[in-house]
Amino acid sequence: MQGKDSGLPAYRVNNRITAPIVRVVGDDVEPKVVSIKEALDLADEMGLDLVEISPNADPPVCKLVDYQKFLYHQKKKQKEIKAKSTKIVVKEIRFGPNTDDHDYNFKLKHAIKFLEEGAKVKAYVFFKGRSILFSEQGEVLLLRFANDLEEYGKVEQLPKLEGKRMTISIAPKKKK
Question: Is this structure's pTM higher than 0.90?
Answer without folding.
Answer: no
